[in-house]
Amino acid sequence: MTPADMGTSQVFGIVGVGPVGSILAGHLAKHGQRVILVDILKEHLDTIKSKGLTLSGFAQFKVKIEDVCYSIAELKKHRVDAVFICVKASVLPRILKELKASVTPGAYVISYQNGLDTEDLIAQEFGKDRTLRCVVNYAGNMIGNGHVDMTFFNKPNYVGAVSQAAEEYAKTLAGILTSAELDTKFAETIRRYTWEKTILNAGMMALCAVTKQTMKDAFDFEPTHKLIEKLLKEGIEVAKTDGCDFGPDFFDFCMKYLGKGGRHKPSMLVDVENQRPTEIDFLNGKIVEFGEKFNMPTPYNQTITNIVKALEAGYKKP
What we know:
Blueprint: E1 11-15, H1 19-30, E2 34-38, H2 42-51, E3 53-57, E4 61-63, E5 68-69, E6 82-85, H3 92-102, E7 108-111, H4 118-126, E8 131-135, E9 138-144, E10 147-153, E11 157-161, H5 167-179, E12 184-186, H6 190-211, H7 215-220, H8 222-241, H9 250-258, H10 267-273, H11 284-293, H12 299-313
Parallel strand pairs: 1-2, 1-6, 2-5, 3-10, 6-7, 7-8, 11-12
Antiparallel strand pairs: 3-4, 8-11, 9-10
Helix pairs in contact: 3-4, 6-8, 6-10, 6-12, 8-9, 8-11, 11-12
């Protein structure tokens, strides 16, 4: 039975149709939800509209999606129940005001992103009662226009609300996503899961970006393996001081989780390769920020953050 059959048919805007947004859009559309894609990647959207969106790897299917917008402003033409923000966290501050002017009044807005505190930025524009946060535990790579390879899914995803007023919708959304084969659980305290995902991402994404290694390469190479351990341990200790104590087994969990990454190129590596801004400020940079707040040294996260920022500063200017 599809969500539509259960009376939960929705209209979802998806802002950012890279790997994460494309995988989300494909699953929702396949299971009867109407999705409206928003991105500046014209050829990618045109291919999806004319030939369909192809997912390979972990999920293998093709689905046609006809509603596309080539700018956020075009979203004004559509009535949406909710909007998933799937752009990089580094882009979020630049688009929020335009998004506020373009989204259907009263619609829910969902941070479907990496990093700490993205939902706080959204709540400042849309209000806490309309803001949700997801923690996404799948990943993929762009193969070409209209084609994304889903490289892994460490189930489940999580969704939570910034305020109690949005909890019922968060529960409904968890059901819709799970019915669409993107297993998602409602979390009363979503911050615990945002910290968990941030620690995991900070343990490897920036390291792969500066060494140009896949996750498997970084994990299997002893010198970088040791750095992964140090980065994780710093993040775990900072999170504990912020009220998120994951217990004595969490480090081992993190290592097993990251060890399953395979030959996946983390998005930060792809960003550096393409000379785009990274999410470093919302990942390792956040661990450094909270470390300073609690007077805790974070030398490994500070060093990797500074190296990534140096890489960004060295991009060739257009």
